[in-house]
Structures are given as structure tokens and as C-alpha cells.
């Protein structure tokens, strides 16, 4: 029984620490889900919050699988393939090009506004 809590249920504990969620955290989390745990008993609130946070984590992992070509191999303890590494490089280059284009467009928009203001005076 070493390391096990002497009170409460095992579902309320993680690594020996009780998981408590503030009312604000519960309210904020329910805004992102179609689930309202505020009316639950305390024990059930914690379980509902854990479920919602687990779903959020699963969604984030699924999105990363879709967007990061290296993630799948890394998560399985493997080295990414040459093709996956090339895909990641291309993806990074494209993101950098888009960032530069956006930055350039933002700078040009500011110059047009400044130029227009100078003509009005």
C-alpha cells in the first residue's frame, strides 16, 4: 500500500496528489465543451474535468499527427524517415515564406496609409 492515499478514491489522485479544480477552471473548461460539470458532486466534477481535459489532449495529439510529419515516428520511438524529414523541411520553408510575405504586405499597407495621409495635408 506504499504510495497509495489513505483517504478518498484512487480516481481523485495522481502521483499521490489530489486533483482539485477551481470553480474558475471548471467554468472556463465548460465554455469549450458542451458539458456542464458545475452541477455535479465534487467527486464527479473532478472526473468530468479529467474527461474533458483528456479529450482536449487527444484532439491536440490528432492535430499534431496531421500537421507534423516527424511526430508519428517520434511518438513510436523511431527515427523519422528521410521523406518525413524532407516534408518537415519543406513545411518549415513554406511557413517562413508565408511569414515573410505577410510581413512585407503589412509593411506595404502601413506605407500606403502614411503616403495617403501626407497627400491630405
TrEMBL record:
Superkingdom of source: Eukaryota
Protein name listed in UniProt: Uncharacterized protein
Source organism per UniProt: Nemania bipapillata
